[in-house]
Design brief:
266 residues
């Protein structure tokens, strides 16, 4: 089995530090989230972004602690999709940035460099075909991950391609810019769920399910904190809370099981 290298761990650490910085400001100090990102957004938006970035931190911690490349291969694709799409979306909103702020240059610098490194790592592993041994994934786990992947990927493309419609359908007030910004991590979650649904061992899906659980739980808790912003008569509110409650429960179960399965040493 190919091991995770020191260079790869350094890369995960660099991505993780930025994700942790944004996650802390967004989730725990939402009124000052513009200390970490280019814009000041309302507290629910800030905590929603914070949950995403704390999830990103979990991805990177999982990568640093992993022994074998097979455990992080999907995660590297998550980095490419998430950061690469944020860069592309940002290009359509260049007039929304205040270029006198350091946060703007960190934003663009990170979202140029990080996806390029991920792309290089993917190019290097293009011919690598390694499957980990261990307890096989039950059919229901693969089925759940596939269903989650399809639903979240559709949501991501709707946010990206039909932002004006999604602004009206979203359960709380968002802008076209935020709708398309949100599409990047949602696409990363959706496609990574589809990718791991095709894998065979718990160790190969561990990092992704842990990080996605942190996102689902973080969003559910933030939504409860700001529940006054939701209308119980709105069907999108029911879908929102029901969907994240289901995802938190299911991903929590998968996380416990994945952590409990030892990584094969051979």
């Amino acid at each position: 089995m190919t091991p995770v290298t020191s260079g790869q761990r350094i890369y995960f650490g660099a991505v993780g530090l930025l994700a942790l910085w944004v996650g802390i400001w967004g989730y725990f100090i939402p009124n000052r989230v513009d200390q970490a990102i280019p814009w000041l957004v309302p507290p629910l938006h800030a905590r929603f972004l914070g949950a995403m970035y704390l999830s990103g931190t979990t991805f990177m911690i999982g990568g640093i602690l992993s022994q074998y490349y097979a455990e992080v291969r999907v995660m590297i694709r998550v980095i490419l999709i998430w950061t690469g799409m944020l860069f592309v979306v940002s290009l359509f909103y260049l007039n929304e940035f205040d270029y006198s702020r350091t946060q703007v240059w960190i934003w663009f610098g990170a979202y140029i460099i990080y996806p390029l490194i991920a792309l290089w790592l993917m190019w290097k592993d293009r011919n690598l075909r390694e499957n980990m041994s261990g307890v096989s994934l039950p059919a229901w786990v693969r089925g759940y991950l596939k269903a989650q992947g399809i639903i979240v990927t559709i949501l991501a493309f709707a946010l990206l391609l039909f932002p004006n419609f999604m602004v009206t359908a979203w359960p709380w007030k968002i802008t076209k810019l935020l709708a398309q910004i949100y599409s990047a991590p949602f696409l990363a979650y959706g496609l990574s769920s589809l990718m791991i649904s095709r894998l065979s061992a718990w160790a190969e899906i561990r990092v992704v399910v842990m990080a996605t659980f942190i996102f689902a739980f973080g969003v559910l808790f933030a939504s409860f904190i700001h529940r006054e912003l939701f209308s119980l008569t709105n069907i999108s509110t029911v879908i929102w809370f029901g969907g994240f409650l289901l995802a938190t429960f299911a991903l929590g179960l998968l996380t416990v099981r994945a952590i409990g399965e030892r990584t094969p040493t051979g």
